[in-house]
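This follows on from our talk about sequence and fold. I would like you to pick a protein and set down its sequence and fold. Go ahead and set the record down below:
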Amino acid sequence: MKRMSTPFYLASWLAGMIGSFLLLGIGAVVVEALPVEPIPQGIAASVLGFGAVIYAIVVWLVFTYRIWSRLPAEHARTTPGKALGFLFIPFFNLYWLFQAYWGWAKDYNTLVEKEGLELRPMPAGLALAMCIMDFVNIPLSFIPVLNVLSQVAVIVLTAVFIIKACGRINALCELPAEALEGAETTPHRAAQIAAQLAAQVEAGERHPPAADGIERSEPGAHPAEPPHTSLAATWGFALSLLGAFWWIFAAIPGLVLGIVGLTKIRRSSGRLKGQGLAIAAIVISGFYLLVIFATLLSALSRARMEVRKATDRANLRRIGLALSMYKSVHEERYPPGLYALLEEGYIDLPEVLVSPGDPDPPRIGPQGYPCSYEYPGPLPLGMSPGTVVVYTRRGVFPGGRSVLFLDGGVRFVSESGIARGRTGRVSLQDSYNWLMERREQWPEDADHDRIADFYGMSRP
């Protein structure tokens, strides 16, 4: 059994994590030093910082695989492949974290106890504390100051765990082979071995012993080859990890190879291993494909919404042009309602008054034309070009509405901007105050209540 290098794993972990913090911090400071363009030194420091993080994570994953591979299979709750592969499954890995490290410490202690080995036990409390701190570090990472303290605690606990685990594995490696091959076989282990032999006989992998207790094989039969890891499962797992960068070009092949590998492993009668890698490949690739599908649906929904908003703004521009034409013909007077633009031919199609995002627009005018736009009615002359004169009614679009200004300009304004009277030009409050100061100039058919409602003001 090969020893594990404590200095290598410890130095790699500490150098990777601490170096990444320093480099990312330096990169952030240098990049922010220039207000317009980040300087190359800052970008280089940031890239090196991310590289240090990736190096530390890769070394940690190798460490995880090797500590599980050093445990005898009969004393391990899982295989090295599963212990590593299941850590990549989103959300499930929060549970598997405890199995991979706290569970390993308990399995090691079980091995020492059941085999009667004169070795120091692995501190299971340390492994549990490390797992809990890793779990708690996720929400704490969003809280200033606490995120730094929790990250320091994770680095320290993980470093101590590396020292303890490497020491216990190396002590196990120094034992003679007979110590782990049944020199002090307990009744529990004897029962496990008998059950394994019976399963092999039933599967046809081993011939039952003769009457004299000696196991014989058929003439010319070759000893069974040790199981090897499925190549399809290995490649499927590798491609599933690349799915974060190559999306469907890696996720789909990873999913297919994971399914193929899992099928072959189950049909191999023990000749193939790597079931954990295959399952991880299927789950990770499936997760990325779901993310891709949800992203595409979201993008499609946003594209449709943008098309509707663009059509809505185009309608308002045509309404603004029609208002200008109506005013020039009717001695600088505004129409009593938008329906008048249709009745007098300034707008050709009734659809111009309907926003594509409005499924049930209210009816206006004697003819009951459907209309998705609010209009305060006849307005006095001399108003500022930035005054709001028409906007899309509330609820047509989530988060805001399109606004038409007196000079024909159109923009989409957030609902909070409308509520607070800020449209980016002249506020609704200022427009209403201006109108109230010139009430004597209002047209005879002007409706004060309607104007107050339009500008979001309460009636006096």
Summary: The chain has three domains: 1-175, 229-329, 334-454. The radius of gyration is 37 Å. Strands lie at 228-229, 272-273, 363-364, 369-370, 373-374, 388-392, 400-405, 410-414. Residues 229-329 form one domain.
